[in-house]
Amino acid sequence: MWMSNCKLHIAVLAVIIFQACARKAPEPYGAVPSPQQVEWQKMEMNFLVCFGPNTFTGMEWGLGTESEDVFNPSDLDCGQWVSIAKAAGFKGLIIVAKHHDGFCLWPNPESTHTVANSPWKDGKGDVLKELSDACAAEGLKFGIYISPWDRNDPHYGTPEYNDVYVRTLESALDGCYGSVFEEWFDGACGEGPNGKRQVYDWDRFHETVLKYQPEAVMFSDVGPGCRWVGNESGIAGRTNWSTFSPEGFTAGAGAPPGDTLQIGNIHGNAWVPAETDVPLRPGWFWRESENDKVKSLQELVSIYNTSVGRNSLLLLGVAPDITGHIHPADSARLMEFGAAIKEIFSTNLAEGATVKASSDRGREFKAANILDGDYDSYWAAPDGINEAVLTFDLGAEKTFNRILLQEYILLGQRIKAFTIKVLTADGSWKEIASETTIGFKRIVPVETVTTSKIEISVSSFAPPIINNVGLFMDKYDQ
Ligand code: FUL
User: Fold this and answer.
1) How much is the pTM?
2) Would the CB of 285 count as within 6 Å of ligand 1?
3) Model confidence over 319-337: pLDDT tens digits?
4) Hey, whose CA ends up nearest to atom 11 of ligand 1?
């Protein structure tokens, strides 16, 4: 009796231990994102609103000597910018609050080169106030770009400028415009009015942002919150690690080469995902002569695929005109773009499929989680298994040309290679893609294919984790 009781206890214990092991979530691998970086990544598309003296002078980089009288929009309407962004599927707007010419779109007490000395609203206007209010009203996030380079400030090129710049950051970030989701530090760094270059005190700049806006993700060429993608053409690396080792580099001339920024570092020690900034027009600022040069719908969908679809955020430069409105040519294109993305990705041809994995780590991590539409439920392989195959039975023949995959980045970026095969009419499997990284979101373009079964093989640095797979048809980017 005693023996059988003992056996029973041992058996129960074994089951409990087995279940506990089976249900344990995988350990994180390598550098992982902060909660703010996860939320930031989920935004996918934001506007970079470029507006200031350049809008009125037709320049890309103002000299800093422009009169404040130049800035005088006849009918500024930040509500229009925000409603266009929202309708086109963008989640936040970052405003160029001070470009390299030094002109501030808010009454910055550190400078006389601001809206306060312009004729606009008799010097009583504040673009940051109007835009942050409009964002709050529509539920979009608000971000700020304040160029460290300043061609107007007389202190530029001396240690005092770092103090001026810190106080400038404070005056925009201290909460008067609500919460700021991203602070953008441009890497462009030239000479100031006295011909000198500035040695920036990046540590102080970062501390200042964190003090007033602890939730803000900080952009620069090399992070710390997110990094430049290394080009302004809308193209993230086909291999794109969100991991990156920034040690020894600084923004601007001290940044690594563009191709390194495009790819990241495979074993980078920090989570510094790529952001892809690209203007909607040839230039970042509005010019009458470029009204007919707005990127085409096909170009924009292609940029979506090579930015959002390559584990990056898309930051699209949008340039309001001298009236203070987004020009009809730009707004019409943005509407078409938003509608196209919605159309492509609203019909997931993998819906209703069944999926089997070569292994899983228990019920909570079963392969079916991949198709449940919930970002926080995922399939994961058991510990010690770094190679796995997922087989999707679509139930019927489906025709598609985009395959979307997502890793659960809260536990790191783990997958280093994957291949995709489809079942052909003669019953054999044909490889249609062989790629490297996935990250938060990967959209793999393939030749249009019709099949009833697809097989995805992954190879990773730690047990692979996938939380979403989708099949789509894109008729716009051909
Ligand atoms: C660049 C700048 O020099 C451009 O003027 C623009 O602000 C763009 C977003 O970043 O590096």
Assistant:
1) 0.95
2) no
3) 999 999 999 999 999 999 9
4) 188
